[in-house]
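Purpose: get a first structural picture of the assembly so the mutagenesis plan has something to point at.
Setup: four entries, given in the order below. No constraints added.
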Amino acid sequence: MTEYPVGATETTARVVEALAAGGETGVTELAEEIGLSKASAHNHLVTLQRLGVVVSEDGRYRLGLRFLDVGTTVRDRLPAYRAAREELTGLAESAGETVGLVVAEHGSAVYAAVRRPERNDRRVQTGSRLPLHATASGKALLSARSPEAVASYVEETTLAARTDRTIQTASALRAELRSVADRGLAFDRGEAFEGVRGVAAPVRAEGEAVAALTVVGPAARLSGKRLEEDLTGLVLSAAKRVELTLAE
Amino acid sequence: MTEYPVGATETTARVVEALAAGGETGVTELAEEIGLSKASAHNHLVTLQRLGVVVSEDGRYRLGLRFLDVGTTVRDRLPAYRAAREELTGLAESAGETVGLVVAEHGSAVYAAVRRPERNDRRVQTGSRLPLHATASGKALLSARSPEAVASYVEETTLAARTDRTIQTASALRAELRSVADRGLAFDRGEAFEGVRGVAAPVRAEGEAVAALTVVGPAARLSGKRLEEDLTGLVLSAAKRVELTLAE
DNA sequence: TCTACCTGTTCGGTAACAGTGAACGAGTCG
DNA sequence: CGACTCGTTCACTGTTACCGAACAGGTAGA
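Result (structure tokens, whole complex):
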């Protein structure tokens, strides 16, 4: 068996990925980029265009907004998102920092929604993916998992480092997760991005952590009492409220 | 030549579409829904899962948030969106109604962004698609096109009706677009949804209408002076400001 | 416990087709 | 006007996407 049962779909995915990364492109350029014949690249582009995923303008191709459509539809189906939507805006206002709702997917922490009072920072945006072990929200999500589940996560990801503060050993992660589980709170002190800190609280439903609420921002502003008491309190109480809404 | 050069990709698209419409599903159910053998449906699902697009949980499959990722990436690349982002929130506040940034794609008006002061209405959300001729924003976008381009649009879409107020003849559309072009403004009076009205102004760049700013809401609130003077003025001036930002 | 019947998954076989390389038309630059 | 580009089309062929059937694993009911 090969890697992917349907090879052509994998090729299409490579095309889409290249378009997502590089923006507008021509056929030849794309074909070279993903190592495909010009004819085949053209076939995929035409197919995607007919499907309404790609738009073409005088010989150049780029992705359309179809993905946005599907993406928001999927997100709107998440119970955690529906329950947290209003709470998020409230949290963003009271915290005065960028806040997000994060869910775990394929071993990554995915920002399902972001509310940002300041527009400067594009490092965290809706759809962003970061390693679970390198973010406050990710650790909050991991903290509710069984030791075996955490062990298999460690095995799969090998705890890739993003900064020199990123947790890189299984034992350090276990210890951290224990303290996170105890406090119902996780911190990120420059573990995903240099100089970026965060707090996160899990949103639990039926024993599982289905999502995490998080506040992130520059270390300069997120420190001392503000981080460890004020923001922490806000995130915790917001998460509790979301849990209540979620439980009906 | 068939309809789609790459048949397998079209099949995958059918799978994704079914998942987007129906939410979580099993293999057998999906196979029946899209008229595919169980084995083939399974192959596609496994492929999509390996690609990180689909997540599976004890035998059931659903779409993940990958689409949200690429969707926001694509949107963030739109110059019109970057220019209008802040203006949108301002407009939402001053108008006190749901506002949106709309672009044309494949003959549809697509909401690239939505700011909604009230959360009740889910008919218009980010990624929503509506016919160009049935919405204020769509007509604003069409109004800048050449007569030939409009004619080919009419031919492609046959001006499908959504309500009994929807413009359904080519001559009526031409007349409407002329008045829209003259005033730099378009209205929607229940043409897309019964009881929903809207105003829109095109955002022009180099002669083309690259996007449209729109305010939408219930007819009960959008009428008389408020619609025709207050909101109209707000949308117009906001669009002008976006145009200025866009021109650098 | 056994049976019957759901699932999801795996397994050959074959006809369709995804991918190739080369040729074609249409711009564009020198 | 030639010599490049580019996007698109065309036949060919080895691959493979799809099918039908068998397999595995769980649940419901008697």
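The longest helix of chain A spans residues 224-246.
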